[in-house]
Write a structure and sequence with these properties.
The chain starts with 14 loop residues before the first strand and ends with a helix. With 410 residues, it is an alpha+beta fold. Helix content is 36%, strand content 17%. The strands form 5 sheets. Strands 11, 12, 13, 14, 15 and 16 form a 6-stranded mixed β-sheet that branches. A 3-stranded mixed β-sheet has the order 1-9-10. Strands 2-4-3 form a 3-stranded antiparallel β-sheet.
């Protein structure tokens, strides 16, 4: 059921209430999950998704298609893995750090500068110690030779008399990358190439560092556009030293009626007034989506537990004996809720997708409809992972395995 909220100009700092169902709907529509019908070219749809979400997290785990591809495919069914390389080459996106390594819209480049300035000034610590001699040598080589990868430093240099080793050189490259001296113009087999920022950055790019309040407003607006509802801690998630400024700016924007305060199940959130118009739109509840553990919807586990009642932990970092659901368990969205999780692996040489464990949430009642929706989505999911065969190993509850296999093999 939709609901439109109109701001009363007589009121300030107003608070509206949403049910948990309305809040979930607002979050999902803001996240573009499931995706609506799209027009225009496929690659423009990919760029639109990146610009709307604000970032796409990069991850190395390859049990199935990597997280950055998976997240984009769930917003753009026409997505192709070559899109990111093309957009990077066209300088429409760039690699840097959001809360983690990510692809970011080039239009937002200047908002990456506060972190870089903090690293240069020492207000924020680098992960690695500064080896000034090595950093100078790395910069000089890239300046004279063009883009280089870490592996290009695995040889002796007669001119410098230094023995290059990949690990120290990689640290120097990342040091320079994080503070903005280098950028990534492309990757080769998922390995970064590094070049001087002035040779990568489009000439028309605004490189004016934002003032603190402008930066806070950017973080708030981008987050709320992509997530529907947000709190200061969520907006400042893993962004060091930003929470106090974000919290103060949220209060100011609410007083100025730029934001609404929203109460959901006793928790207070902020939202853009225009975002609540999404509640008048339908949510494609019958469509099922198999999500990446690093999907933008899920990345803040405490938030997703509060709003969706879904307690999620990525168990790939746990010893096998301590795993409850599996190495790479994928949350499943259906009927406006997170209703199951599915541990998968693509055995690419055999074109075989393994479902090692499908675990249904205790609250899932409409199992027949869920199984039909799941089998419908498994066909494009298998194609996305370059698999033509499927093997289901077990389910929880265990008695569902026969019913699901019957639906799959119809």
């Amino acid at each position: 059921m939709g609901r439109r909220v109109t701001v009363n100009p007589e009121k300030t700092n107003m608070t509206e209430s949403l049910s948990i169902q309305q809040a979930r709907k607002l979050v999902l529509l803001s996240q573009r999950l499931p995706p609506a019908k799209q027009t225009g070219s496929a690659i423009i749809a990919t760029l639109s998704a990146i610009e709307h979400l604000g970032y796409i997290q990069i991850d190395t785990i390859s049990a199935i298609q990597r997280a950055h591809h998976h997240t984009l495919w769930n917003r753009n069914p026409r997505y192709n893995a070559s899109h990111l390389d093309q957009l990077l080459a066209e300088k429409k996106i760039f690699e840097y750090w959001s809360h983690a390594a990510a692809y970011l819209p080039m239009r937002d480049y200047r908002y990456s500068l506060p972190r870089k300035q903090a690293l240069i000034s020492g207000d924020q610590k680098h992960w690695y110690e500064c080896d000034e001699k090595l950093i100078k040598l790395v910069l000089n080589r890239i300046a004279s030779e063009g883009p280089l990868m870490a592996k290009d430093f695995e040889h002796s240099s007669e001119k410098s008399g230094e023995w290059w080793k990949s690990k120290p050189a990689k640290r120097a490259l990342e040091y320079l990358f994080m503070q903005g001296d280098l950028m990534v113009p492309y990757r080769v087999n998922f390995h970064k190439a590094y070049d001087l920022t002035e040779r990568v950055l489009p000439k028309e790019t605004d490189t004016t560092p934002p003032k603190p309040e402008e930066y806070a407003r950017f973080l708030i607006t981008r987050y709320l556009q992509a997530n529907g509802l947000g709190q200061a801690a969520e907006i400042a998630y893993l962004l060091k030293n930003t929470k106090p400024l974000v919290a103060a700016t949220l209060q100011e924007m609410a007083l100025n009626q730029e934001l609404l305060q929203i109460s959901v199940a006793g928790n207070r959130y902020y939202a853009l007034p225009a975002s609540l118009e999404l509640l008048d739109k339908p949510l494609a509840r019958s469509k099922l989506k198999i999500l990446s553990p690093f999907d933008n919807l899920l990345i803040q586990r405490k938030r997703i537990q509060t709003l969706f009642g879904f307690d999620y932990l990525l168990e790939s970092y746990l010893p096998e004996a301590k795993r409850q659901y599996g190495y790479f368990s994928l949350p499943i969205l259906w009927d406006g809720k997170l209703v199951a999780r599915m541990d998968c692996k693509a055995e690419r040489k055999k074109s075989l997708l393994h479902i090692y464990h499908l675990a249904l949430e205790p609250g899932l009642v409409k199992t027949d409809a869920f199984f039909l929706a799941l089998t419908k989505e498994l066909t494009p999911f298998m194609q996305f992972n370059n698999c033509s065969n499927l093997r289901l190993h077990r389910t929880t509850p265990a008695n569902y395995i026969a019913a699901l296999q019957a639906v799959i093999h119809r």
